[in-house]
Amino acid sequence: MSLGGILTAIVTPFDGDGRVNEEAFVALLHHVLDNGSDGVVVAGTTGEGATMTDAEKLRLCELAVAESGDATVIAGTGSNDTAHSIELTERAGELGVDGMLVVTPYYNKPNRRGIVAHFSAVAQATDKPIIVYNIPSRCVVDIPNDLLAELAQIDNVSAVKQARYEDIAPIDGMDLLAGNDDTLAEVLDKGGSGGICVASHIVGREMRRMIDEPDQRHEIDAQLREVFAAMSVTVNPIPVKTAMRMLGHDVGGFRLPMVEASEDEAEEIRVVLDRHGLLSAV
């Protein structure tokens, strides 16, 4: 299965008591799918998967599969515990998701042989495609391109979400997906198949045009740079949830250790949304 297009790393709405708001999740799911997204990644970094229970993650996967029609549903099943990642991968596969996003084991800092062993073990637990999630800014471990090429030889390891900025390159045997909104144009120029995106909650149609209208790609990218920057005024997913609330979406608050945006951060986000005409539609 080829993995590509605009895949939104969907936020997880919480209610006033901090519980997962399933009704709001379904509404948000339809919003992103109706506005440029080809699919979603559930319970990833942006979805605050790190503070969700397995039952919560799997329930959202179940809802996404039921509500997404032909759209792609990717489950965030990564962990720094290989056995845990295998279990989540098996259970998500049983629910009918289309693939798994598996992050490099964080904190443990495995060496090259450990990284290969981890992804080999997880891939053996499913017949669904595995997306390697390379995000050294959070995991402290970077998977260099030669090691990605080695991982591409593992059955079911089908793509990489590349969330570093240096040395982005196509990998033989792997779909290349942008892991940062502001590298989507670069990745597409290099033959990548799409991106796992955050700003697509807000400007998904425009981001989809970067795929559909390659001649306009860099002009669109330039127009969206300010929006991309606003989604990085503080750690993800604080900015995107703040923006979505400003745009009238019921996404709730955060689970600690994520906290609300400061007044200055929120104002910076509001100014950008207003400048791009997004608030006028609310």
- Distance, first to last CA: 38 Å
What do the pLDDT scores average to? Answer: 97
Strand runs, count: 8
Lateral arrangement of strands in the main beta sheet: 1-2-3-4-5-6-7-8
Q: Considering DSSP H and I runs of 4 or more, what fraction of the residues is helical? A: 40-55%
CATH superfamily: Aldolase class I
Quickly count the helices: 11
Largest sheet: 8 strands, parallel, barrel
CATH class: Alpha Beta
CATH topology: TIM Barrel
Shape verdict: globular
Q: Which parts are unreliable, with pLDDT below 50 for 5 consecutive residues or more?
A: none
CATH architecture: Alpha-Beta Barrel
Total count of domains? 1
Rg to the nearest angstrom? 18 Å
Give the class from helix and strand content and strand pairing. alpha/beta
Q: Strand share of the residues?
A: 5-15%
Order of helices and strands: EHEHEHEHEHHEEHEHHHH
Summarize this, please?
The chain is an alpha/beta fold. It has 11 helices and 8 strands.
